[in-house]
Amino acid sequence: MRFARMVLWAVCLAGAGAALAQDGRPDARLELRSTSYGLLVGFSRGEGRLLFRDRQYRLSVSGIKLATLGVTRVEALGQVYRLRELADFPGRYYVVEGAFTVGQGGGNAMLRNEKGVTLFLQNTQRGVELTLGGGGIDIAFAEPVAAPPEKADHSPNK
Fold this sequence. Notes:
By secondary structure, this protein is mainly β. The chain has a single domain (26-141), classed as Lipocalin (Beta Barrel), CATH 2.40.128. Helix content is 13%, strand content 59%. The chain has one helix at 2-21, and strands at 28-52, 55-81, 91-96, 99-112, 118-131, 134-141. The termini are far apart.
């Protein structure tokens, strides 16, 4: 009984944190596409793009899930919160989920990396999959990212 109460409190606190994070405008937008294959342990690979400060960045995505079975194609759109610097975006994002898809399905997911960047994704899945565990996805830039050009200073004091 005590364990059930602790789990209930954890779920409520996580939900409250997610609601508070979405109160403001997102710092960036995200589009992802991936294919997942699983037989107890699942693997996914895909690509996407990040729209941050009027620039687009190509992404590569790979992941692992535990307690999963099936093959699915996933397309997701999302908002990115707590992204202050571009360097904070790449990394491993963690999620705990349960899903069952036959044919077509969809859902929402909240993922967070170690730097506090939070992704809220709405996804569509096609295929057959049963997932009862959690996992993570690694997101990296598909090509080297150059710093945005600095604006020239045309002040008369120079």
